[in-house]
Amino acid sequence: MKNRLLLLALLAASTKGQVVPFSCGVGHATSEQLQELSALTADGSSIIASNSNEVITVPVCSYIFNGRHNDDEITDQMLQDQLDYLNQGFTAASCCDVSDSWCNPVDCSVETNIQFAWAVVTPKGTLAEGHTTPNIQDEGACSFRLFRPLWIRTNSVNGFFMKRLLRKGGPNVLNIYWSNPLGSIAYATFPTSSKRKHDGVVINPAAVTGGDLPGYGRGSTLIHEVGHWLGLLHTFQGSCESSDGIDDTPMEYAPFRGCGELPGYPLDRDSCPNNPGTDPVHNFMDYSGDLCWYKFTAGQMAVMRASWFKYRAINTIVLQEGQPSEAITLVARGRQLYSLITSNAIRCTASATEGDIGLYLQWRHEPRYIAFPFINSCSTHGLPDQSCTVRRPRQQEVLYIGVKSSFVPVTDLTVTCVAV
Ligand SMILES: [Zn+2]
């Protein structure tokens, strides 16, 4: 019955040009992703995350596609407004609109200390690592307009080629593709996704700040997707049986729709009455939509920050010749980007008390754990205590360090590097 009502509401919405209930292309998390998430909150990363004073700046690249009859649907000002709105969504200033009768402005969002700025592209078209700019008008701001009628709408096949050809930067760079995805308003990849070339957010250009998709003109859709990009699941992920991996988001049986205007979806819905709290209908990670969303919780903030430091950040380590680095935090089966400042060759050693270790070092490119080394990379595999040395090529600074465990899980992993 509920589904029929929703369908009727959808039909009414499409004929009247009213709000279409939200649909995100990110499905339920796999058991592997849930494990990653519980490890993220359980292990030392949560300690890093709790140090919430350090401001994280995420570099952003944006791609807009035009066809013959599709001239500049999104202006630069709209893109800048969207970035500003994204930034506001990650601060404690994100709140409901007091003109809405349901708004309780003391119950706003949290300060995440996660901010977003345009990545900077050099005249050669490469990304200037570590450089960002707040204004899209600034020289080199990573925003592209391309004549690509095929990418105005995408499905999983042409969307794959679009990302493969365009994506810029390492896992720290948020690539946003303004393309209308088949079957949803937007979707994003998780930080644990193994396919780096797919990484990013694909979003209907009409859902940009100031866009003309009814009910989505504020630009919160991007905030929802960036929540996924930083490791958050939907609040209804676990129904009433298990949570979304975060303690302070109440359990929810199924997605909430609309913002109180749809039959069967009152704002005080409590779909898991045996569990504490009413449904988190104002949370960015529910399905309520642009007009209702304004909130992240402290638990979500901790997961996003931990995800950043564990999977996305580029960490800078200054190496003195002959002086080993401090222990580098890595997880087996993960890989991490490190910027190692030195002009020498680098030898890294991975040790563990138990398990088999595959260690991989490669300048700038994605580690693939291949069995034999190429120039600019090295790999080794075997029992604990594995070392390999890689010579630093000119003008390369960012080294990927990857550790994998194939057969026996690694315990007490320690990775150190030294300039030799
Ligand atoms: Zn979603």
UniProtKB/TrEMBL annotation:
Range of residues in the leader sequence: 1-17
Keywords for the protein's UniProt record, in alphabetical order: Disulfide bond, Hydrolase, Metal-binding, Metalloprotease, Protease, Signal, Zinc
Top-level taxon in the UniProt lineage: Eukaryota
All residue ranges annotated as the Peptidase M43 pregnancy-associated plasma-A domain in the record: 217-306
Gene Ontology MF terms in the entry: metal ion binding; metallopeptidase activity
GO biological process: proteolysis
Family: Belongs to the peptidase M43B family.
Protein name in the entry: Peptidase M43 pregnancy-associated plasma-A domain-containing protein
Annotated source species: Fistulifera solaris (Oleaginous diatom)
